[in-house]
Amino acid sequence: MAIRKFDPDTIDWLTEFSVLGEPASKANQRRIVKHGNKIRSIKSAKALNYVSAFAYQCPKLVRPLDQDLVVAIEVFYASRRPDLDESLILDAMQGPIYVNDRQVKERHIYWALDKENPRIDVKVAAMNLSA
Length: 131
Prior knowledge:
CATH 3.30.1330.70, two-stranded antiparallel ribbon, single chain, alpha+beta
């Protein structure tokens, strides 16, 4: 089994940015609501608030990236409680950063603790399949 080497210092990052606030984890980002006779799953208030804050803070590329991508995300949580989960972040990057989150072919996700300044630090690069 081969695992690619990942050295963030040698990658030509296409964009780098930070977003303040703590993202909701996938397990906690949905809630069940009843609308008439239908039951639906919608984003929780925390997830909706995070997506809104993300949209406000995230840079908007002139032309969203359309190639296969490598993403490195460090999530700084306010407490030790949350599970590491980047799914809401990847969804929120769809549009301002890339066309579709299916383009992300390699992920490097890191958990960190910063009680005073929860945030995410994101780096995006083109995927180099020859490496």
